[in-house]
Specification:
The chain is globular and about 55 Å long. With 183 residues, the chain is mostly helical. The protein has 2 domains: 1-94, RNA polymerase sigma factor, region 2, helix turn helix motif (Rna Polymerase Sigma Factor, Chain: A, Orthogonal Bundle); 100-183, Arc Repressor Mutant, subunit A, CATH 1.10.10. The protein has helices spanning 2-12, 16-38, 41-58, 69-87, 107-125, 129-140, 145-152, 156-182.
Length: 183
């Protein structure tokens, strides 16, 4: 945490190297959080860039309030996702699983991977908003429960309960989907 504070302070003083290090440290986590929330890799790339542009513009106003810097970053990303979902029309987008395709992949394995990813995204889409956020922060952004609690403004117990209920719901949905597929 102290290293992070030092980095943030230097970035607040317009130190480009410090900001670049923060960017490198958090880019993948923010991107994964956004892609799982939107299901669209192209939009997630653009939105992640927008998040860091907003951070660059506003970092001088960041104040430590007992929460990690990442909580502030994820709040900006959350707001970006909310804005995107509000504006989103019913136009078709490139499905998330298409982003996984590579020409050298085995076609059978690729088809299986796409089906599993589609089922996962459909199952995640059926969770409550809070459950989706916990799953995204915990497993795609790889944040510890304590940090997820700070990002979401919830207690550790509430986050653990949300995570548990989300995993149980996903397990039921995915077990049912895979059993249906075998039939």
């Amino acid at each position: 945490m102290q290293d992070e504070k030092s980095l943030v302070r230097r970035a607040q003083k317009h130190n480009q190297e410090a900001f670049a290090e923060l960017y490198e440290r958090y880019f993948d986590k923010i991107y994964r959080y956004i892609v799982i929330r939107t299901g669209n890799t192209q939009e997630a790339e653009d939105m992640t860039q927008q998040v860091f542009l907003k951070v660059l513009r506003a970092i001088s106003s960041f104040k430590w309030r007992g929460k990690p810097f990442s909580a502030w970053l994820f709040r900006i990303a959350h707001n970006q996702v909310v804005d995107y979902l509000r504006k989103k029309t019913k136009q078709p987008t490139v499905p998330f699983e298409q982003s996984l395709a590579r020409s050298e992949d085995n076609p059978y394995l690729l088809a299986e991977q796409k089906l599993e990813m589609k089922q996962l995204l459909l199952a995640v889409g059926e969770l409550t908003e809070a459950q989706r956020e916990v799953i995204s922060l915990r497993f795609t952004s790889e944040l510890p429960i304590a940090e997820v609690a700070k990002v979401m403004g919830k207690s550790l117990g509430a986050v653990k309960a949300l995570q548990h209920s989300a995993i149980v719901a996903l397990r039921k949905k995915l077990t049912g989907a895979f059993e249906y597929e075998k039939a």
